[in-house]
Amino acid sequence: MAPAMSKLRAEAGLGALLRRALAQYLLLLRLYPVLTKAATSGFLSALGNFLAQMIEKKRKKENCSPNLDVNGPLRYAIYGFFFTGPLSHFFYLFMEHWIPSDVPLAGVKRLLLDRLIFAPAFLLFFFFIMNFLERKDMAAFSAKMRRGFWPALQMNWKVWTPLQFVNINYVPLQVGASPAFCPEAQRLWVPSPPKILFYQLSLCSFTSLQFSLSLGFA
Known about the structure:
This protein is an all-alpha fold. It has 7 helices and no strands. The N and C termini lie far apart (about 50 Å).
């Protein structure tokens, strides 16, 4: 009986800690929306790249510790902090202003704008900035574009389009766009239970991980 009670108390304490952390995060979102989103985006991007490297090392059956490339997570953190967070924030605010909800077929128009304009442009920008941070020339940039742009865009459309339909049409905007490597998740960042918030964080980190593995930017 005692171990069961101890376990219940521990779970209750963890739940309370997560709720306090969530409340503090939402407060920061209201007070410093762009900075909070940029910082979270940088962290999630770096985490996804780190996990990608660990997976690659395990696949090759190598020892992860001495061979881990710290520059990979650093590049992703820079990109997430300076580009993903701020750009997605202002783009989705602009979309709300440019296509108000009372416009006929506003949800469809917003979805098409996001999927056909913003997603390809953002992905192209991602390739370019990562190539610059890796200090590679335009020949390397062109090669990676030819090899990876279309598969990555297809992955983006397949994974995020159904979610974006719900996201844009039914989830209210919370203090602007969300912090994430994946800007498509921007409307998911509304007041949520801790388990939902953890799912959102994990989903965005997983997107960064997928990009690292599939595009060779690990």
